[in-house]
Amino acid sequence: MDKLRKVLQGQEDEPEDEENILTQVYAGTTLSWSTRVKGFALCFVVGCILVFLSVFILLFPTPSNLQIFAVFYTLGNITVISGSLFLMGPVSQVKRMFKEKRIIATIVFFTFMALTLCAALWWDTALLAILFAVIQFLAFAWYAISYIPYARDAVKKFFQSLCT
User: Fold this and answer.
1) What is the pLDDT of residue 15?
2) Which own/partner contact pairs does 105-114 have at CB distance under 8 Å and 24+ positions apart?
3) Which bin fits 13, alpha (ψ -120 to 50), beta or left (φ > 0)?
4) Interatomic CA distance for residues 137 and 27, integer angstroms
5) What is the pLDDT of residues 52-106, one digit of tens each?
């Protein structure tokens, strides 16, 4: 269990950095493990509810529902990813998001969050908003499976086997 805590808090085999203001703030504001798990669980559940509500709203097509869908869907994704901030800590989470194997998924995820909102709120284009939301989901899924060892390789091999 201690190994899992160290991994989720970003203390795995990383050299100690110089103590700067961010690490001092981080050290002064640490949460207990049970509080971290509760925060993660709450964010995850609330985020999933927002995502499911957004998809449910799409079942009743009206002009304003597209905007509600985009806002709820994007807020749901932000809330779900915020839950991992509780587990790993904000500094560690941001460092991991921009590591070489996750940077593309992270950039695509955040870019398509913005594009989903733009397509629904300003451009008023339902097809684009839904397409951008799907790409946002795929980028988030690719980002999430990067934390599971060999999961990306398994997914790649699965889709390669479908193509041959």
Assistant:
1) 47
2) 105/139, 105/140, 105/142, 105/143, 105/146, 106/143, 108/135, 108/139, 109/77, 109/136, 109/139, 109/140, 109/143, 112/136, 112/139, 113/74, 113/77, 113/78
3) left
4) 33
5) 999 999 888 787 888 999 999 999 999 999 888 888 888 888 888 888 888 998 9
Enter the tokens of residue 75. 């807020």
Q: What is the pLDDT of residue 17?
A: 47
Q: How many C-beta atoms surround the C-beta of residue 102 within 10 A?
A: 17
Highest mean pLDDT among 16-20, 47-51, 157-161: 47-51
Q: What is the CA radius of gyration of the chain?
A: 18
